[in-house]
Batch of 2 targets.
Target 1
Amino acid sequence: MTTTTRNRWWAGAFLPANWDDLPWVSFLRPGIRIEEYRSDDSYVLRAELPGLDPARDVYVSCRRGLLRLHVHRSPHGDATRSEFHYGSAFRTVVLPVGAREDEVSATYVDGILEITVPVPGAAATEVAVTVADPD
């Protein structure tokens, strides 16, 4: 087992020891965590969004080559202590060139939102460029 110790010398100088419990530091926490990949005919984005009602709490839109994900999490019950993040979070990603924004589909299973965007043609390939010697 490996233990990682963070050197937060700066945190003690400016913030209290329990700074992570303060409500105003939510902007420092990661919003929506994603993973993305490209297949031959589509771009797929997966977002980790446990405990949401996709019909009520999740909004996905595409416009001008950008995919925008907006989620809102509301508190449930009367918790005496909660480390959950409540409120809104946004994420915008650039779609591949040629993405068919009008054919986007999404599914939500076991807390994972999977968005599929059709992209015609093969996935991008790497092209080697020869650099000429000026002599």
Note: Helices lie at 9-14, 54-57.
Target 2
Amino acid sequence: MKPGNGLGVAPKKAGAKNKKSKAWFSRTFKPSNNTPYLPPEAEEGNIEYKLKLVNPTQYRFEHLATQMKWRLQEGRGEAVYQIGVEDNGMLVGLSEEDMRASLKTLHKLAEKVGADITVLREREVDYDSDEARKIAEVLIRKVPDDQQFLDLRVAVLGNVDSGKSTLLGVLTQGELDNGRGRARLNLFRHLHEIQTGRTSSISFEILGFNSKGEVVNYSESRTAEEICESASKMITFIDLAGHHKYLKTTIFGLTSYCPDFAMLVVSANTGIAGTTREHLGLAMALKVPIFIVISKVDLCTRATVERTVRQLERVLKQPGCNKVPMVVSSTDDAVTAAQQFAQSPNITPIFTLSSVSGESLDLLKVFFNIIPPLSNSKEQEELMQQLTEFQVDEIYTVPEVGTVVGGTLYSGICREGDHLIVGPTDSGQFHKLTIGSIQRNRSACRVLRAGQAATLALGNFDRSLLRKGMVMVSPEMNPTICWMFEAEIVLLFHAKTFHKGFQVTVHIGNVRQTANVAAVYGKVSSPTLLQHAACSWKKTHTLALKHKGQC
């Protein structure tokens, strides 16, 4: 499918027949060579095609409800219905009366399965007939229960002073910036960040959407707990540093927190500058799908904004990137971009907006509301069936609670009272511990599933035995440690030669350690032996190497 063409339709040869309602189909119109099509409906996935849903029988209604439950399960709580579309993808369209009746039936079905519907868009199908025919695209979203909202993590990248933190402040606080950085103040963690206006650490912000697709943020909710209670879908932003001085912190955020997507923020008045290319290269090397936001358009003329867009398009189309840029300028574009972005890794949506005037901010919110998770229910179930592995990213001591660790559950399921082992220590040992309690977004949670981030209370466990980069795993896993490992290296950019004895910082998942190159076999892209300064837990994983700020 080509980007930017509305519903993504493309001409296809005619001749398909409607097996379900052949007589009705033949009376309404005859397909021509220009009849538009969508791809044929897939049995798996969260997208369902329906020609019409007019006055179904009770038996048919129950069957449709079961079908909707299946599609919601496939989409982990979200499904998209195309009304007026044949199973083979032909855009037949419905009359105004049939469309109202079909949407009414869809409302009843959603109510039965505990979901809400949002009509994303309606459009007329252009046929040679006297009666106007329409198709509708409808988002079905499950009303959450027991804190099981859909959670997507978005890493925020971009050069220093590109407007990353300001944009997140506007999205999560619900108030526009005053042009002097007021919106970003709530995101900063340190005094020097407030004084300089530059992020040096990793911070997290949340943006919620309820079952009806409405924004849930701090403008209407006072706490994160209230946002979690109201939201059916949560976008967790990982705000990363833009200055080259803090590149190691940015790399750690990309490798450790397992982002689903990356948002590269580029200032319209400076274009591609500073660490922009490095951040783009890192996201692509780690295979994180990326979309681009051009900020500060209120400071520039339209010609300057268009020049920045063309500059980005040239970079994205270069060999090594091979991306298909898609400029989003309407709600219809935002809906199409969200659907195609998740399906094709080559599509790169580009938004142009302002955090001061609010221009096109609503298009970015539509995009976040619709964008589906990358993994389907089957892949998620397979991860949950594996043994428990929790990555330790943060360590705290909380009064009256004890030792608390924060991180991401890489695989399996974690419950209160589970017995795990944590390590490795400097001597290569693992220690036993018991999970006291679990919290997600500051709300109590009894069960943690693969892919979710949380904090775990460990009671009186000795904090001195813990460090960042450790893992908490099931004892049945029998983890092994290593001081040396073999890796295939692809050198993205560096001024010096990669050779034996070369010292690098290795980022693998939540592990960040210094290592020496013990041996190089053949070309640089061939397997290379690296030796750690300390023992670590290793699995087959994508890694990033850094030498004095360069990758």
Note: The radius of gyration is 25 Å.
